[in-house]
């Protein structure tokens, strides 16, 4: 199987859309990611997967903390900004959750402290201990087969 076939197959798994944020030397950095999942309830742990070539990799290593911001269905533009697909945009202002930068008005904000990092293939998996969480009531932004989607009403 070639790389394109693998990517297409993995794209058949519908995911939510997140923005991962970290702060280094007073500067907040963010990137769009859909490689996120919960790992454990006790202790409360999540994992994110960051490509070795991503600038965000070193930012998380330096910071030792990160946030996961789960986007709502009306936040496609925010996803595109942090994916580098939208160059002309207003500056994004961050809030704080347990001292970690988070995006305001997202579906869910999760602040995390890095507890472990595992290099696997061309990615690093960061395990984060959840230090705080804030949830809003809204529908999620969905990513499926290379396109943004929304949940359909039943």
Automatic annotation (TrEMBL):
Gene3D superfamilies: Electron Transport, Fmn-binding Protein, Chain A (2.30.110.10). The keyword Transmembrane helix does not apply. SMART domains: Flavin_Reduct. GO terms for biological process: pyrimidine nucleobase catabolic process. GO terms for molecular function: FMN binding; riboflavin reductase (NADPH) activity. The keyword Oxidoreductase applies. Residues 10-150 form the Flavin reductase like domain. Pfam families: Flavin_Reduct. Keywords: Oxidoreductase. This is Flavin reductase domain-containing protein FMN-binding protein.
């Amino acid at each position: 199987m070639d790389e394109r076939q693998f990517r297409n197959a993995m794209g058949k798994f519908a995911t939510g859309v997140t923005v991962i944020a970290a702060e280094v030397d007073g500067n907040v950095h963010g990137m769009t990611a859909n490689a996120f999942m919960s790992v454990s309830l006790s202790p409360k742990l999540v994992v994110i997967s960051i490509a070795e070539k991503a600038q965000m990799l070193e930012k998380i290593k330096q910071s030792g903390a990160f946030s996961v911001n789960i986007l709502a269905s009306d936040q496609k533009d925010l996803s595109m900004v942090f994916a580098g697909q939208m160059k002309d945009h207003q500056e994004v202002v961050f809030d704080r959750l347990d001292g970690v930068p988070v995006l305001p008005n997202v579906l869910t904000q999760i602040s995390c402290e890095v507890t472990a990092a595992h290099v696997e293939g061309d990615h690093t998996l960061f395990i984060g201990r959840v230090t705080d969480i804030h949830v809003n009531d809204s529908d999620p932004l969905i990513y499926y087969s290379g396109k943004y989607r929304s949940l359909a009403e039943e």
